[in-house]
Design brief:
Structural class: alpha+beta
Distance between the termini: 34 Å
CATH class of the domain at 136-208: Alpha Beta
Number of helices: 9
CATH topology of the domain at 136-208: Alpha-Beta Plaits
Strand order of the largest sheet: 3-1-2-9
CATH architecture of the domain at 136-208: 2-Layer Sandwich
Shape: globular
Length: about 250
């Protein structure tokens, strides 16, 4: 099996040369709320919640805040706050690049206004629902980090009904990504761990059917600035796009 995760590769490359801050406490807390809402409120039985909690702890979020976020997601904590709503926004970046934004907000009008302004200032435009989502498929992704026996990975991936996997060896990351249909993600994760493979992260990811290759440095600069601006908004949880950049172009932009 072989696979392509170009957006994930761009995110890793971008992180290496980009000085932007990590996700805010608000974004990380909201990720916990979503995970607890979409599954059980126990991290031992909810891999999405477990991953969100690990990221929050790594960012220094206090345990009390984490527990409060879990309770909000489970519906057992009432503090008078407006109800958070999951919304997916869609738009186009410079050069017609398709962009999906997953947001969690208590005011969709405010979020749409912020997103519209971010697109406008960076050569893109916020589109209507459905304008680009048809170009993407949501999949489950298990990221492995470290040296991997590929024969063992192939065997475990087949047993876990994975669609594809990609071994990755770059100067800043060694590992693999295993992609599957969402209903098989939890089972695949358990099988990979049971085989002793180094699971780092489990997530849902929008994967584009096709990628636009960006070779112009100014277009690439505008795209990366747009992605940065979108990701900096507290209401935004994830941003995905369908463009591909060469390593040397990212290095030049650094």
């Amino acid at each position: 099996m072989a696979g392509h995760s170009k957006w994930a590769n761009i995110k890793r490359q971008k992180a290496r040369v980009d000085a932007k801050k990590g996700k805010t406490f608000t974004q990380l807390s909201r990720a916990i709320i979503v995970a607890a809402r979409n599954g059980i409120a126990d991290p031992d039985g909810n891999f999405q919640l477990r991953t969100a909690i690990d990221k929050a702890k790594a960012a220094g979020i206090p345990n009390d805040n984490i527990e409060r976020a879990i309770a909000k997601g489970a519906g057992t904590f009432e503090d008078g706050d407006a109800k958070l709503e999951e919304i997916r926004y869609e738009g186009y970046g410079p050069g017609g690049v398709a962009i999906l934004i997953e947001a969690l907000t208590d005011n969709r009008n405010r979020t749409a206004a912020y997103l519209r302004e971010a697109f406008k200032k960076n050569g893109g435009n916020l589109g209507e629902t459905g304008c680009v989502s048809w170009m993407f498929a949501q999949k489950g992704v298990v990221t492995l980090e470290g040296e991997i026996n590929e024969d063992l990975l192939l065997e475990a991936a087949m047993e876990g009904e994975a669609e594809t996997y990609e071994a990755i060896a770059s100067e800043d990351f060694i590992g693999a990504e295993v992609i599957t249909e969402i209903p098989s993600l939890d089972s695949l994760n358990r099988i990979l761990q049971d085989r002793g493979l180094p699971v780092k992260e489990v997530e849902l990811r929008w994967i584009p059917d096709n990628n636009i290759e960006v070779t112009d440095s100014e277009q690439a600069r505008s795209l990366l600035k747009l992605i940065d601006t979108l990701e900096s908004l507290d209401d935004v949880q994830n941003v995905t796009a369908n463009f591909d950049l060469a390593d040397d172009l990212i290095a030049v932009l650094a």
